[in-house]
Amino acid sequence: MKKVIIALIAICLALVCVIIIKICVSDTPDDTVITNTSTPEATTPESTPVGTATPTPTDEPIIPVVTDPPPPLHETIDPDTLSGDEKAAYTWCDKAYEAAKESKSLSKGSDTESINSKWSSVYDVVCNQMTRYYDYYLSGGISYKSFECLMNSYAQIPSASGIAKGYIEVAKSKEQSGSIVDNFVQYVNKGKYMKATMLLKDISNASSIVTIKDLFASNTDAFKQGITAAVTEYMVRYELAEGKSYLEALKGLGVDEHIQTEADRLEAYRKFQDVELVNCNVTTTLENIYTHCLIAYPEINFQSKSTYNWCGVDCLTVSEFVAILNALYEKGYIIVDANLFYDAENDTINTTLKLPKGKKPLLLTFDDVTYDSRKDNRGMIDKLILDEDGYVCTYTKHADGREVISYENEIFPIINAFVREHPDFTFHGSRGTLFFTGFDGICGYRTQSNPIDDNEAQLGLDRQSEIIEAKQVIEALRDEGWTFGSHSYKHSRMSNLSASSFRSDTNRWLEEVGAIVGDTILFCWPYGDHGGGELRKNAEHKYLFDNGFKFFFGCGAKRFYANETDGNGIFSDRKAITGEALHYYSLGYKTYIQEYSYLFDPNSIWDPYRLPYKSNYLPEEVGVK
Ligand SMILES: [Zn+2]
Q1: The sheet that has 392-397: what strands, in order across it?
Q2: Chain mean position to CA 586
Q3: Contact between 602 and 576 (Cβ < 8 Å)
Q4: Which H/E stretch holds residue 277?
Q5: I need a surface site. Which of 83, 205, 451, 537 has the fewest CB within 10 A?
Q6: CA of 599 relative to ligand 1 center, distance in Å
Q7: Contact (Cβ atoms closer than 8 angstroms) between residue 528 and residue 555
Q8: Predicted confidence (pLDDT) per residue in 270-307, tens digit
């Protein structure tokens, strides 16, 4: 009886641990995506290799490890010392154990009812057996799976059910903390100290686990860098409370001073984001800028005058885009979520926003993000993918079969990296908005109902798998702070559409793209064409409004931000930053000189690959409209 009471106390204590130790399934590393470039996390080469990927025994484990011998079967007990009821209980316990070995559980029946009805006389037998089987599981005699099946049999006896379920919880938490240590070691072996430390928030007392402590001691500088990277990640994702508890969990691991420095940095950032805010007049300061996906491979697009048109007119190269980001950052702009501009309650623009002192609001939007299959091998990437840690990167298969995975040739990973370097460039974790069409899917996935042409049809892609992959990319982008909007389904000139075509285009976008990206209030007119304003006050505008779109975007170099005249939503023009704009500026077009000069000097950012087209050709010749 005494041992049973001790066991019950142990269960209660362990259950407290269970509550503290949270499941950590999503952080499990897998090897499905192999990248050949560095991940966003800084890796440190001088990490100490760890020989084994299995959980290492610890001096002070979270769960007390008991290594008694396996439980004796009832044959080993002198039957003469047992009552008839006790013998029957032992026999049932044996049956349950035999079933568990085959990963099965006994169900409720007359035998469990009988044990239950004689509970006071078989209590010691049943509970002692459960304790012994638990010890046996701890010593490695049976697997977790078998132990769980065994306890599920015991749970069929109403009086034993609570204890049995308690044992299952305790064992489950032991498995989980074991797998956290295992994953921790795997991340360290890969040099991913940030990811490794982020696992520890799910262990109640990481500093009591010797494996973790030892690794911290032998890789202190690498762990410090990892902690700094993690705190930055929490900052730029605006997960400030999570960042705080992350740091708490790392106390006692030998880097407390560094943790304090990081906690101070996190707190200063919280004040910057949440406390030291001032009213900013949006109507006079908002800068609304758009471009398209980047020219990832300028050497392909700028081969000749005839290939220039592929992406050269609509798009920027990486170096051009990064130069603009730097200029905007230096001018004091901060990226703000487009949704913050619409006052839903009063269906009106927000004229002021509370923003960090000295910052001006910046809306960044990116059109299409289709990676149209007809434009493969023309200098853009093929699609956005996720790396093994869930970060968005790019995938391109070149004409010669070479496959390239990169974090450095498309807007999305570039902006993510930029805000990590300059966390004060994002307000509340916002990144920008992707305006999707639907005619050839999104993000390089063929999620649409019909293949765009025979070539695509011949690929025989499975639409459902394309949708699943696209959703994963969208969720990762959303987690990173990106928002999504409609750019219509077909990218038609909407002013040429009949009322019924307009509506069916809208419906199709909602069915095929909206279903993947979720509800949105953001709509961007293709080509900036709203029929000179006509489409912004007719029944079709109302149709868009009634279907959830409230904030409409056009194209125009001059800043413009106002309520729609028909009372249905709000509108803002966007400044194009494209190859075409670079040409117009270099030609001295008045509007461009006036509207771009105060942001950056477009003449100074031309990519070396584009430069030959600056003086040799007039825009008309290379196709600039
Ligand atoms: Zn477009």
Answers
A1: 383-386, 392-397, 403-406
A2: 40
A3: no
A4: strand 277-281
A5: 83
A6: 23
A7: yes
A8: 999 999 999 999 999 999 999 999 999 999 999 988 89
Ligand 1 centroid–CA 552 distance in Å is 14
Average pLDDT, the chain: 87
CB-CB contact of 558 with 543 (8 Å): no
> What is the DSSP annotation of 145-175?
HHHHHHHHHHTTSHHHHHHHHHHHHHHHHHH
Cβ atoms of 39 and 391 closer than 8 Å: yes
In angstroms, what is the span from residue 52 Cα to ligand 1's centroid? 52
| Calpha distance 476→513 (Å, rounded) | 16
**ipTM exceeds 0.95, yes or no:** yes
Angle formed by the axes of helices 539-546 and 499-509, to 10°? 20
Class of domain 278-622: alpha beta
What is the identity of the amino acid at 437? Answer: T
**Rounded to an integer, what distance in angstroms lies between the CA atom of residue 588 and that of residue 564?**
32
Half-sphere exposure of 64 (CA within 13 A, CB side): 14
For residue 495, report the distance from its CA to the centre of ligand 1, in Å.
15
| C-alpha 384 – ligand 1 centre gap (Å) | 18
Quick: pLDDT tens for 452-464: 999 999 999 999 9
What are the domain boundaries of the chain? 2-46+53-177, 182-277, 278-622
Evaluate whether 179 touches 209 at the Cβ level (below 8 Å).
no
Q: What angle do CA 65, 66, 70 make, to 5 degrees?
A: 135
Residues in the chain: 625
Q: What is the Å distance from ligand 1's center to 124 Cα?
A: 75
Q: Residue 618's pLDDT is what?
A: 55
Using the mean position of ligand 1's atoms as its centre, give its distance from the Cα of residue 314 in Å.
Answer: 9
266 Cα: distance to centroid of ligand 1 (angstroms)? 39
280, 355 Cβ separation under 8 angstroms: yes
DSSP string, 590-623: HHHHHHHTTT--GGG---TTTTHHHHSS-HHHHT
- What are the beta bridge partners of residue 383? 395
Give 369 Cα–ligand 1 centroid separation in angstroms: 9
Distances (CA, A) of 30 to 167, 189, 190, 262, 398: 30, 14, 12, 29, 26
Q: How far apart are CA 611 and CA 596, in angstroms?
A: 19
Residue 10 has pLDDT above 70, yes or no: no
Helix (H, G, I), strand (E, B) or coil at 51: coil
The alpha carbon of 153 and the centre of ligand 1 are apart by a number of angstroms equal to 62
Per-residue tokens: 99: 């079933």
Query: Distance, CA 491 to ligand 1 centroid (Å)?
Result: 6
Most confident of 9-18, 53-62, 398-407: 398-407
DSSP bridge pairs for 317: 295
